[in-house]
Amino acid sequence: MEVHVNLDSSLIPINPGSVQALANDFISFHNLSFDEVSICFVDTKTICTLHDQFFDDPSTTDCISFPMDDAEDEGYKVMGEIFVCPETAVNYIQQQKGDLYEEVTLYVVHGLLHLIGFDDIEDTDREKMRAEEVRYLKHVDTENLWILS
User: Fold this and answer.
1) By C-alpha distance, which of 4, 39, 28 is closest to 112?
2) C-alpha separations of 40 from 16, 66, 94, 121, 124 in Å
3) Is the per-residue pLDDT at 9 higher than 80?
4) Which element (helix H / strand E) includes 44?
5) Domains (ranges, CATH) in the chain?
6) 95-137, pLDDT tens digit by residue?
7) What is the pTM of this model?
8) Cα–Cα distances in angstroms (integers) from residue 7 to residues 3, 32, 77, 111, in the given order
């Protein structure tokens, strides 16, 4: 799968190869077939603008996903586009402690899950999504697929 990584946010260094490896593994782990996905790392201003423009909410958020094709579609399939805000992770880690790159990895995984149909609006859907995040992040840890600097 072709994984486009756009590093518009220079707040923290991100290794594009580690993002590509994570996305490709995610597809394999979930036994899916896609040809392309875009993952963009953006600053707070950009994520707030996108959040406002597409969700009528100008507040900051960790990631926003825009699904495109379904896994069952025929032909060339674009999974979609994810916008991740590393600055949100920095702020979260300053308050809650933890590892910055594990938090950024969680945001990318969360976005990828949205692209394959997971949702977190309703409580029952949120529980399913959180369970899948935990399940896949255990795999990420075992395989050492964390996003790196």
Assistant:
1) 39
2) 10, 12, 23, 23, 29
3) no
4) helix 44-55
5) 2-141 (3.40.390.30)
6) 999 999 999 999 999 999 999 999 998 999 999 999 999 999 9
7) 0.96
8) 13, 26, 23, 16
Residue owning tokens 């507040």: 59
Q: Which two tokens stand for residue 64?
A: 């926003």
Write the pLDDT tens digit of every residue in 50-64: 999 999 999 999 999
Instruction: Identify whether the C-beta of residue 39 lies closer than 8 Å to the C-beta of residue 108.
Output: yes
Residue 96 in tokens: 């809650």
**Cα(90)–Cα(106) distance, integer angstroms:** 13
> Is 60 within 8 Å of 75 (Cβ atoms)?
no
